[in-house]
Amino acid sequence: MSESAATRALRLLDLVPYLNSHPGVSVAEIAEEFAISRADVIKDLNLIFLCGLPGYTPLELIDISFDEESVNLHDPQNLGTPRRLTESEALSLRIALQALAELLPANHKDRTIISNLTAKIRSIFQSRIPDGALTYSSDRQRLTINNISQAISKNKQISIVYYNKSKDESKTRDIDPFRLIVEEKRVLLHAWCHLSGGLRSFDTANIESLEILDRPRMTSTEEKESGSKMATVRWINSQRSFAERYTSIARPGEPTSDFDFFQEEWLIRSAISYFDEIEVLEPADIRSVVAERCKRALELYSSH
Amino acid sequence: MSSAKTERLINLTMALLASRRFMTKSEIFRRVAGYSGNQETKERMFERDKDDLRSLGIEIEVGGHDPLFEDEPGYRITPEAYQLPASQFNAHELGLIATALGLWRESEFEDTSHSVSRRFQSIGVTPQEPEGLTLGEVSIDETGLVEIADALADRQGIRFEYRKSGSQDAEMRRVNPMGLSAWKGSWYLVAEDLERGDIRAFKLSRFVSGIERIGKIANYEIPEDFDVRDYLIMFSRGELNAVIDVRKNQGGALRSQAITVEQQDEEWDRLTVQFNDETEFLREILWLTDAAKIVEPESLRIKVVSALTTLEARYV
Asked: Which of the following CATH numbers is that of domain A140-224: 2.30.30.520, 3.30.10.20, 2.40.160.30, 3.40.50.1110?
């Protein structure tokens, strides 16, 4: 590998402040930090030794002493402070900070600090690229889903901070994940919630943070016993987009289908949303709820 | 590998950094170690050294009119332009910087971020590690990102072959990069299209060639109020418009795709939404039942009312 004199000069310019702030560092550590061989470190150190300010008497040279075990910089002259960032380096740091802020839980205290820090970096390095030109919105939900899948396959419990929209509050819950149900607009996690002591469906978009615990999860056979309910729907016509979306539902040519469900709210809303495809026959007690909801919604349109 | 040249570059940097005045060339040749040979050789040496240092990102200021050397320009490097302002960062911020830079591990940005990270570590302040961070595995990288970010930093045009969505054929595009955005797991370049004369968004994964620089460095300005999000909305935008009143704290999915959200009163917000598939959109509105009310268009409003009437009759 032939390295240009300029690239090497840049490394030396960074080596001096590094040595200045890491007294007694070993040659092996330097080699690792700068990704060069130990022989090259020695060559670099021997070269630094020759550099200095005009005059070039011992008083003006960079003063350094070293053996394999310990390198000590006695006088960095005017190179003791590290180089500032270039525009492109500052840009990569600003992107990384934005990504970090995005990956933190919504209410993490460091989010504001990071956003101020990003602005500060822009101003310190006099960047010509405005803040609005760089945005990082993570696919946090995808990350959540990956982690849930991992927990399910490893049979681990997880701890989540879940935001309940209707109550507008976030709570930490330890849960046994059972399975992910992919809908077009959202991905639901069916799980046993130890906080509420029951089966719950969580919208993965509202999971603010997630941690895989080192505790075994309940398996899905126990899930069935612990509380899913049976629904019966009548197919109104030959369309089956409802069934296609929820793959757990059998799709025979029968006029009705039975399937397991976990959350009444989900079934009620499905009955309304898929009004042109299904009629929920069982459980019969949700039928009046559907009618009541629709009546309330119609009032929105008739009141004015 | 010529050590002499490296040594001279460092001596030159140190001398220019130490000098408060502008140093003229003759002064440099006289005082800085490493310049030898006849005048022409020294001149050529110096020109190359200057270019080298600049290419490394070291700013050399030119100017100064010393009355004795009226026709000779002078050179210097100011500490402000060279040094990392160490005192501006506290231990907590340095910890966040180190963690953030760690996100680039195993990406195209790895070398850059390692160098940046090391320089922050060389400030001499021990960074305070951020608490409560479990980031898991993330990838914030994409092919071409570094080259585009560099071009953006230089404010220099680029050209590349690009395949539009739904198209088989690639087309050469010439653009001035204006911003970068990671959005729903993909990276987008927002840039002024030099042929079409407007600002467009390009998905990095649809680049089918390498990236080539065109035009000069610092060739254009990016307006201070420029916001990439103004141009990314096109990826979610549909053909049809709707205005919907949605109860506060409800209709999250609808809100996330809304173009505008305005407060109506204590209970309701008014959303402007664009959509493509009317059947799907109707399902979404019905899913919200009494938490959403269609204001416009009339055709959709009629469909919602009709569905609700059918349902009420069916389930009584």
From this structure: 2.30.30.520
